[in-house]
Design goal:
Elements lengths: L2 E5 L2 E3 L5 E8 L5 E9 L6 E7 L4 E3 L7 E6 L4 E6 L8 E10 L5 E5 L3 E5 L2
Parallel strand pairs: 2-11
Antiparallel strand pairs: 1-3, 3-8, 4-5, 4-9, 5-6, 7-8, 9-10, 9-11
Length: about 120
């Protein structure tokens, strides 16, 4: 079974920082990209940040300039550095991995989610 193990969630202060980490393990194929999504109560899941195997990144508009995503392909690990935190960053954060499937398909895997609360 493929597992995405997330860590680093918790309580942060407005203007502060948190660092989320996710490591993929198990019977996963070649990883094309990894990233983070979040879902706040009453809202749809949205992209936070994504990075592909070539190092190209994509950020949600609300986190651009504040969050930075990086990866270690050899360790199948992605790290999200969250700076200048805002209360609106409060959400359940899910790690995501896109990996090679049986043929040329792409399989998507999700972590269980780690909560982030930003409050004074």
């Amino acid at each position: 079974q493929v597992q995405l193990v997330e860590s680093g969630g918790g309580l942060g202060q407005p203007g502060g920082s948190l660092r989320l980490s996710c490591t993929a393990s198990g019977r996963i194929g070649k990883i094309y990209a990894m990233g983070w999504y979040r879902q706040a109560r009453g809202k749809e899941r949205e992209l936070v940040a994504r990075i592909n195997s070539g190092g190209d990144t994509d950020y949600g508009d609300s986190v651009k300039g504040r969050f930075t995503i990086s990866s270690d392909n050899a360790k199948a690990t992605v790290v999200l550095e969250m700076n200048s935190l805002k209360p609106d960053d409060t959400a359940l954060y899910y790690c995501n991995a896109e990996a090679q499937g049986a043929t040329d398909s792409t399989w998507k895997y999700w972590g269980k989610g780690t909560p982030v609360t930003v409050s004074s």
